[in-house]
Amino acid sequence: MSGHSKWHNIQGRKNAQDAKRGKVFQKLSREIYMAAKSGGPDPSGNPSLRLVMDKARAANMPKTNIERAIKKAEGNSEEHYDEITYEGYAPGGVAVLVEALTDNKNRTASDVRVAFTRNGGSLGATGSVAYMFDRRGYIAIDRSTTDADEDQVLLDVMDAGGDDLETSDEAFEIYTDPKQFTAVRDALEKAGYKIADAELTMIPQNTTPVPADKKEQFEHLIDALEDNDDVSNVYTAAADDDE
């Protein structure tokens, strides 16, 4: 792995989400609707739906909101969303991937472009930065929730089919092949671990430090993208401050 730890970023993201929970729920409802519409309303037979439902529960989304989105997908709703990925560079030359779920591609493309240009970045062509990221399964275990040491966790991760383990004072971070992600997560839960975070994500192969004089611009760009109602995920190749 590149040494790119997600743990601190995840904690910061969750704190930010708490402050704008209504918008987060709106985005999750859209993801649940699309997953149920394309793969069926039963999460036991629809891994994509199960994954986004787990994501919704982790965000403390009310059960009624989840059920409403699934029922909407079962009905005759004509809503349709396109999945689009935008690629570009943030200030300092940091690669950025933006995943969106939109019912108006022109609106979203315009909004994303404006977010980049107003905050010192530049939107690139398809394929301009995607090759710098790998799709991975990511699972985090808060160390305060387990008595297991690193050796024991590594054995359990290998037994579960995980590829890699990174350890810090706060967390055990596990990376998996995307196809094995659900099986690894389930095996670790069965082994008694409490999962703090689990998701399919994009991991940069290498990271780029954000220059000190560009950090404020960089943060404004990421905030502008994440605040967009159509944007589901924002991934960057920015190096952690302690790297």
UniProtKB/TrEMBL annotation:
Location relative to the cell: Cytoplasm
Name of a matching Pfam family: Transcrip_reg
Record flagged with keyword Flavoprotein: no
Entry keyword set: Cytoplasm, DNA-binding, Transcription, Transcription regulation
The keyword Transcription is annotated on this UniProt entry: yes
One example GO MF annotation: DNA binding
GO cellular component labels: cytosol
Annotated organism of origin: Lactobacillus hominis DSM 23910 = CRBIP 24.179
Family affiliation: Belongs to the TACO1 family.
Residue ranges of every copy of the TACO1/YebC-like second and third domain listed in the record: 81-236
Organism lineage: Bacteria, Bacillati, Bacillota, Bacilli, Lactobacillales
Domain TACO1/YebC-like N-terminal: 5-75
Alphabetical list of Gene3D superfamilies matching this protein: 1.10.10.200, 3.30.70.980
GO biological process: regulation of DNA-templated transcription
Domain of life: Bacteria
Name of this protein: Probable transcriptional regulatory protein BN55_08510
Region (Disordered): 1-22
